[in-house]
Amino acid sequence: MTDTPLDQPKVPLGVGALIGESFSILFGNFLKVVIVAFVPVLLGLLLSGGLIGFDAALGVAEPTFDDPGEATAFGLVFIVEMVIYSLTTALLVQLAYDAKLKRPVQPGRYFGPALSALLPVAILSLVAGILAGFATLLFIIPGLWVYAVFSVMVPAIVIERVGFGGLARSARLTKQYRWPIAGALVLGLILIVVINFVVGLVIGLVSFIGGTILAAILFSALSAIGVGYISILIALIYARLREIKEGISVDQIASVFD
């Protein structure tokens, strides 16, 4: 399940540089990243809240599975969240390239490519998540490895329009670089865990003091930061892999949106 010594990368991925640049893009375009991610995240929260209640959707109340209807509702929430995450990532991947190339960030221009890629991105994200979940049940390292294998699936679908071939395309691109990618993603996931912990504390307090509406807005804004960072990091990893393996520059990648 691991890359063999003969498959070791000849050119370093440059994890440190990718991490640093992803933070630079995030903080250099902080408000734009949060706004682009905020709208779909808030929409997903509203849909989830309508299905299972806003306290459960915000994580300030324990979910219940007392009857089949409630279990079905939680299943629908999972699907909603997967679709929203897929849409958000597809939007932010495009923003990341514009920001990297110091071009104007134009959120309205990103929706067409993101929506056209939504179905394969959502379905394949679910498949990849299930595969990584099963691997994690066996042992955490294989789970991270599987996650790394399919990590650049979204930009491959959005940029190259490979549709349901996204998993295979990601597997080819990440070959020889899966452990470095896993290391980069672990650092990103640590950030997500920290943000989610802070979000949980803040949302619980705000929900108690200020009510559900304010808590939902704050939840969406804070969650957008974590989603934004991971999406930017994945976009940069994809660009770096194509540069190393295919000699494709970032401006050539981004030119498909012109």
From TrEMBL:
The keyword Transmembrane applies. The chain crosses the membrane at residues 33-54, 74-97, 118-141, 147-167, 179-207, 213-239. It comes from the Bacteria. Keywords: Membrane, Transmembrane, Transmembrane helix. This is Glycerophosphoryl diester phosphodiesterase membrane domain-containing protein.
